[in-house]
Every structure is written in C-alpha cells, then in structure tokens.
C-alpha cells in the first residue's frame, strides 16, 4: 500500500490532467447532477493544482524571476478563461463578474499572499528582507493598473453607471497591455537583479540551493501537461458554473461572491507556492508571485474581456463601489509603506491580512 501511495504521489501531476480532460470530454454539454458536479469539482481542483505544479517545474527550469512570471501567467490564463466562459452564458447578471474577480485577485494577492508571506518569514527570521527597487516597481504598476481599470470607470461621465465608453475601454485595455509588457521587459531583461531574492545583509541570491533544475525533456513534458490542464480547467469550470451561481444565490449571498470564489480557486495553489518560498527566506520570490499575479490579472483580464464584450450581450461594469474604493486606497497606501523600506516585520504582515479580512467580510455582508 505504501509503495502504491508513493507511486501515485510521484505520478499524480501527470495523471490528473489526463483524467480531468477525459471527464471534460464525457460531460461536455450535459446537464450535471449532484454526483457529477462533485466529480467535476474534484477534477477541476485537481487540474488547477496540477497546472500550477507543472508551471513550477517549468519555473524551476528557467530560474528566477522567469519562474515567478511563468507561474503568474499560468494562473492568470486560468482566471481569464473562467471569467470569459462564465460571462459568455451569464448575460446581464454577469456584467460585473470581471470587475469582481479582478478586484478579488488584487485583494488576495496584495494583501493575502503578501501579508501571509511577510508573516511567515518574519515569524522565522524576525525581519523579512526583500529588494525595494523591484518590489516598488511591481507595486507601482499594480496601483496604476488598478486605478485606471477599476477606479476610473466610477468617475467617467460618457456612459451611465460605472462603465467605460468604447474609446475609454480601448485605451484602458491597451494601457494595461503596454504597462504589463514594460514590466515583463524590466523584470526579465533590463533589471533582472531587482527581482532576485536577497540575504538579510542585502546581497542578491542568484542561485537555487534546494534542488537541481529538471531536464529540458521534463520541462517540455510539463509544458504539454500544463496546456492540457488549462484546457480542462476552462471546460470543467463552464460545466460547474451554474451550480456555483445557484449555490451563491441559495445562500442569499451577493452575486459578487462568485468572483471571490473564482479568485480563491485559482490563487490558492499560488498562495501555497509563495508561503513555501517565504519559509525558505525567499520573500522576494513570494512578492514576485503575489504582485506579478495581481498585475497579470489586471493587465491580461481587462484586454480579454474588452475583446469579449464585442460579441457578449449586456454591459461591462468595471467601476468599484464606495466601500471597495476605500479598501483599494488603503491597500495602495499600506502597500507603499510596506515595500519602500525593503524590510518588514510581523506588524506589516498582520496589517495586510486585516485588510483582506475586511474585504471578505464586506463581500459576504456588504
């Protein structure tokens, strides 16, 4: 029995994407009962975990900061696919789904992942040390993208409601793509050393000390399985989306909770990866994961839904409400004060987690 469990533990990342894809093919277009929903839900969760595992394998092969970029992109592709598939069938009731999911991703990454990573490292080493140049650049880009895409629509007057007019939406989408592209170039080419982990004395760590990188063949196999897992996630999410929406409605919760569920689903594995890095005193890697995911979530989701809105029915609502605007402003102020010194204690981690807690409470009870 132990031998079988060990064998499965080694092979599950390769088996799960295949199983999930087979379940997707067999259930595509079918009305799912309770039993099938449970099966599809398990396969969906397994496919998400497998996708992030294979992204980590590829990340280990290419090294930092490319590894964090690969993982962030993989998670964001899942998120974008889930949003678009749910919006395609939702009509008017899904008009704010993109906003709710992107904002949930920003709060979870900038407060949840960042706060938990700082808390874990500071608890072990008293002070969490990271590179302020790279972290400040990433956080500044996240702040700009969030302001242009989520805050600005609330105050525009060309269209009724917290919405962009078509020209404004085109500008926001292009600005998001350009800023994200500039950040990737800065992170991987021009100033790569700004995004590498540092020691307590501030020296850059440019080596990986915990395992040998996988072979090229292993990385290519993981790339193929990653693609299969992502396809499975998109298809299975489309199948269970009516159940998620019905469960939220039956519980008497706001429709925005659906966006929170999506963000939690796709970011949970990445949160685990960030905490693991923080436990190894690689807080910079954790911050790269968290802020990179926030940036990719906005920088890729907004252009994707802007294109999708061409053929989708109903309005595209992007502007935040008053309470969420306050939370965003607090997050940006607190995040700025956290990253500028390049050092953080338990207090900073606790403050970020308190903001995440406030967001969750207001999402359930607005």
UniProtKB/TrEMBL annotation:
UniProt topology in membrane: Multi-pass membrane protein
Keyword Iron recorded: no
Stretches assigned to the Sodium/calcium exchanger membrane region domain: 34-188, 222-363
Membrane-spanning residues: 12-30, 36-54, 66-87, 102-123, 135-156, 168-186, 220-241, 247-268, 289-311, 317-339, 346-365
GO terms for cellular component: plasma membrane
GO molecular function list: potassium:proton antiporter activity; sodium:proton antiporter activity
Keywords, comma-separated and alphabetical: Membrane, Transmembrane, Transmembrane helix
Entry protein name: Ionic transporter y4hA
Source organism: Streptomyces caatingaensis
């Amino acid at each position: 029995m132990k031998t079988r469990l060990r064998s499965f533990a080694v092979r599950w990342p390769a088996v799960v994407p295949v199983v999930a894809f087979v379940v997707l093919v067999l259930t595509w277009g079918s009305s799912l009962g309770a039993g099938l929903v449970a099966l599809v839900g398990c396969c969906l969760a397994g496919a998400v975990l497998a996708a992030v595992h294979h992204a980590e394998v590829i990340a280990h092969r290419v090294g930092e900061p490319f590894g964090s970029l690969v993982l962030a992109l993989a998670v964001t592709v899942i998120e974008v696919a889930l949003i678009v598939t749910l919006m395609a069938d939702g009509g008017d009731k899904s008009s704010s789904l993109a906003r709710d999911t992107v904002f949930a991703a920003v709060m979870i990454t900038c407060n949840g992942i960042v706060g938990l990573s700082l808390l874990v490292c500071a608890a072990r080493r008293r002070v969490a040390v990271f590179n302020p140049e790279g972290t400040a650049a990433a956080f500044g880009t996240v702040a700009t993208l969030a302001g242009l895409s989520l805050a600005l629509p609330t105050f525009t007057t060309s269209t009724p409601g917290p919405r962009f007019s078509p020209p404004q939406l085109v500008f926001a989408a292009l600005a998001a793509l350009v800023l994200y592209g500039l950040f990737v170039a800065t992170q991987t080419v021009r100033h790569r050393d700004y995004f590498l982990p540092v020691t307590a004395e501030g020296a850059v760590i440019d080596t990986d000390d915990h395992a040998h990188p996988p072979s090229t063949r292993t990385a290519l196999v993981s790339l193929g399985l990653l693609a299969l897992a992502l396809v499975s996630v998109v298809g299975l999410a489309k199948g269970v989306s009516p159940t998620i929406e019905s469960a939220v409605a039956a519980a008497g919760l706001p429709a925005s909770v659906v966006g929170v569920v999506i963000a939690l689903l796709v970011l949970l594995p990445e949160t685990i990866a960030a905490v693991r890095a923080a436990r190894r005193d690689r807080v910079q890697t954790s911050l790269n994961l968290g802020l990179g995911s926030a940036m990719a979530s906005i920088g890729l989701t907004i252009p994707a839904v802007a294109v999708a809105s061409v053929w989708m029915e109903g309005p595209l609502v992007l502007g935040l409400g008053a309470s969420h605007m306050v939370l965003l402003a607090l997050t940006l102020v607190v995040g700025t004060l956290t990253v500028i010194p390049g050092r953080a204690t338990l207090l900073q981690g606790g403050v970020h987690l308190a903001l995440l807690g406030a967001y969750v409470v207001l999402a359930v009870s607005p």
